[in-house]
Write a structure and sequence with these properties.
Layout: H1 9-40, H2 46-79, H3 88-116, H4 123-129, H5 131-145
Helix pairs in contact: 1-2, 1-3, 1-4, 2-3, 3-5
């Protein structure tokens, strides 16, 4: 943990946590928007266009910047020697973060399906997808706080 950035550690950690909270808020909300979009807004309708605006703004203005900031702060913290590469919890956390990033990408692709009028997934699919970020978040938090192994 010998780093010239150590005096900034509380600020870097705060930035990481705040950006993570923002990212997670979007990860919880976007699939819920997709549920309503798939069930209540036929392609080309005014409601479809409204959902598209909401989904685009959530993804582009909140989720993408928050994800990038979470990764940047996290990588800075790792570069400071604050990641225990020899412990299994670290690798499980990293796998869950990669899973969260993959889920983010999947949600972005589904938004494009709605934009192109090619969504074939049901509200039920999006309801199930809505649980993935929750499970990944629980894994991440337990790994960081409890460090079970």
């Amino acid at each position: 943990m010998n780093s010239i950035l150590m005096p900034l550690y509380p600020w870097l950690l705060a930035g990481h946590v705040v950006s993570l909270i923002s990212w997670m808020a979007g990860m919880f909300y976007l699939p819920r928007l997709f549920v309503y979009h798939a069930e209540q807004a036929p392609a080309g309708s005014e409601l479809d266009k409204t959902f598209q605006v909401m989904e685009r703004k959530l993804l582009k203005l909140i989720m993408n910047p928050a994800m990038i900031a979470t990764w940047v702060f996290g990588l800075i913290l790792i570069s400071m020697g604050l990641f225990d590469w020899s412990s299994a919890w670290s690798w499980v956390k990293l796998a869950a973060v990669l899973g969260m990033t993959g889920m983010h990408g999947w949600l972005g692709a589904r938004r494009k399906d709605f934009v192109n009028g090619t969504n074939t997934r049901t509200g039920r699919t999006y309801r199930m997808a809505n649980e993935v970020p929750t499970v990944l978040m629980l894994v991440i938090v337990v790994m960081v706080i409890v460090r079970p192994f």
